[in-house]
Batch of 2 targets.
Target 1
Amino acid sequence: MVIHALLAASLAMTSLPATTVEAKINCARVKCLALTFDDGPGATTPTLLKTLKKAGAKATFFVVGKRVEERPKIVAQAMAQGHAIGNHTYSHASLPTLLDDEILEELKTTQDAIQTATGQQPKIFRPPYGHTDDRVLGLAGETELAQVLWTGTTLDWQLRDAKKIKAAVLRLAQRDGVILMHDTVPATVQAMPGIVKELKKRGYHLVTVATLLNGKGPKSGVSYF
Ligand code: NI
């Protein structure tokens, strides 16, 4: 009986999900930064997941619905590793140019794709190109989504150079910041081991957007950062 209890206790310890561990980080007390990756999942996403896992870093992935349907297992793996998943529309559309019904369709089909892949519906979305307005935000609220923008964008898709991307991230890094990158840009994935190493050296805890909000969100229909 005692042995069973001990075994059960040790199993419970080892099977604690990474998210539980991260939930203990209090960003009001320690220096936090949220790395966010848009437009995936893609061919280079698994390499990025390996880098983050090795570093014990958490991130937020804003995924494109049609790509989730192509690579559902990668999204499930990201969530299992304790990363947050957000909605980045189904077809990477510029939402303000669409009709209400089309915007809802973009958001809902992506919610469904993520639900199918991971068993959970995201609570956050990021509008492609950062194109948004009050109408988009209202419709996101109807879909029970909060809008998450960023404090710094690396323009990694333009730089396409690991050294330049690393320099951009380090320049943009600030306490409680949200950095926008793309897991579909190979140079970003290539730069990431060096980036996380340096950020940790500078005292940053790399957390999801939800952890950064520290219990004050995300609330649907609200825009953050
Ligand atoms: Ni995008």
Target 2
Amino acid sequence: MTVTPGLIIRLQSGFYTVQTQDGPWVCHLRGRLKKGRRSGDLAALGDHVLVTPLAPGRGLIEEIVERKRALSRTAPTPRGEYQQIIIANPDQAVFIFACARPAARFGMLDRFLVIAEKQGIPAVVIANKVDLVGIETARLLFGRYTQLGYPVVYTSVKTGEGFDELGSHLSGKISVFAGPSGVGKSSLLNVLLPDLKLKEQEVSQATTKGKHTTVVRELYPLPGGGYVADTPGLKALGLWDIEAEELDGYFPEMHPLVANCQFNNCTHVHEPGCAVLRAVEAGQIHPERYQSYLRMRFGETEGA
Ligand code: GDP
Ligand code: ZN
């Protein structure tokens, strides 16, 4: 029998909608795939699969193609750890903040970036509402991230500024969006995905907050190719499982310096011969980034 390749774009009570070259097929998993003990989700949004047709618009998932990467969380269960896949094969995480109203919470952005580094997912930053402060002020605020190598796109839903550039970052890719509320995420996604009523959906998600539901259930196709997955925020997804000792490895500006610290268990706070502290004092590491590091390493679980 002929198998057709496809992409899982929707999960709904045990059924998977698979986008194939012949359109979307509603599928379930072939029974043999479910045999044996599982340590994680078998199939997830963003998985590439092979399906066989059952009826028009219906099919059976025969095989799940090996994942390149995944946005996942590990949940403890009575039978051991279980890896829950939030999105398989995301190409990038897109973190949206506002230049003003509300003022950007860089501590939260830094936390998101650490999660993306930990999960091995490239990150893009959107600085929205650039119309409120002007591009120069916006660059003063967000420029530190450009210097670290993260693309920063300055957008305004009001004026349309930055949307061409944003489009070229999103085109053909699977992007996971996250950001705090009020920054214009739904306004922006409503422009990118004109057919969707995301605002309403967000309201219904808010009511289930704290119930540990899987929040993302759908990849939304972009008119120019690629998909967007919306999430209410990575904190809600419980992705923070980073050991204190590995944290410096997720700060691109610290990572290459750590080997030069005098002590190999250096915490970069008070130790003599600390290369990170030297860089902070020399102004080579942004002071707020260093503060974020300290908060994540020692502080309360602020913000994100
Ligand atoms: P969300 O909570 O992140 O989904 O934010 P919303 O999309 O609901 O937007 C919050 C508020 O910011 C609304 O009043 C929007 O009209 C406004 N807003 C969104 N984008 C922009 C922008 O680029 N510039 C300005 N000035 N306001 C915006
Ligand atoms: Zn050090």
